[in-house]
Amino acid sequence: MSCKTGSFAMRTLALSLLTLVPTAAAAQSGPPASIAFQSSRDGNNNIYVMDPDGSFQTRVNADASNDLRADISPDGRQIAFASNRAGGHFEIFVMNSDGSDVRQLTITAATATNTWPRWSPSGDWIVFQSNVSGAFQIYAIRPDGSDLAQLTNAGVNQFPAWSPDGTRLAVRRDVDIYIIDVTGGAAPVRLTTTVAAGVINQMASWSPDGTQIAFMSTREAGNYPSVFVMNADGSAQLDLTPKPMGETGTWSSRAPAWSPNGKYIYFTGTRPNMSTEQIYVMGADGSNLVLLTSADVNAEATVRHVRAPAITRITATPNVLWPADNKMVSVSVTVDVSDESDSAPVCRITGVTSDEPIGAGASQVTGPLALELRAERFGQGGRIYTLSVTCTNSSELSSTATVVVTVPHDQRK
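Now predict its structure.
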């Protein structure tokens, strides 16, 4: 797409509003229907999607089976999930984001359980956990069901989570969080150390920038599940959802998932005022807790992995200022930008520099993609203005590119 202004395009979402958002909605941003979760509000567990703020909670599929642990593909077109619709045991399935064209990816014995499918950042692979060989191990498969590969074989490995660069997995190995290099270039790295009996660390989720990992741990007194966050090297482990002192009611927090901009963490929780598990969102520091669901059991929200806009071309008109008569000249910028999650990312001029010293009035931004530049130059080689343009999508992810406007020394330049 090309844009010449920074205005948003109105989006139309053809989804049925099944559940009103309880209490006040949070201010999370992101593409429509980019949160997937499971809910029993219609009897059995089905896959639902909702907007990042909890609105437009919509059932994707409807059948008599139990469908669990959904994850949306990076391009938003498909959903991977686990279901017991084939033979009564759980296999991995993929369907279109509207629930059509359901395809079974794994076919295993009735004694096997295959769950927790997670798309790679590129969308080329789906990893999942399976006990088809005995203890749970991590497997990878293509979205079309080809190239099945076993990635782990030591101990018990569960709950895989891709790193943002697609080279590593954070997994629960036995009772701790480990990092596994899927390229085979490095040995597994243990991030948590469990010394007390009965304590587990699992359900890791990488922050979008790859610097932190959220996870569930039962290490606190009482062994209740709580959401922790740590640096990607295992340092600075912090409990984000501690049980308040003196609280005697049910309290648990698990299955964290980061928002694309890294500002929020979604999780499944039970609280004294709620009789069933529900989906909450909070700030990445544990603040500003908001309840997003309320009907029956709602659990294990996952967040679509959204990428920043791709700026493919940027031009300035005019890109040469002549004559160099010290007058202000109007310049407009055109940006070609693509974004698989947002049809209208907002682009605007965010900086103007010059290879020559310039006065404060030599450049004046007059609109999102418009400005005035002074047609002057001092040096023998002329002047080069460099304009920085940043495009930001609805998930608050940005990309920046530059374009130059020159004031030549003479007409031959």
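The mean pLDDT is 91.
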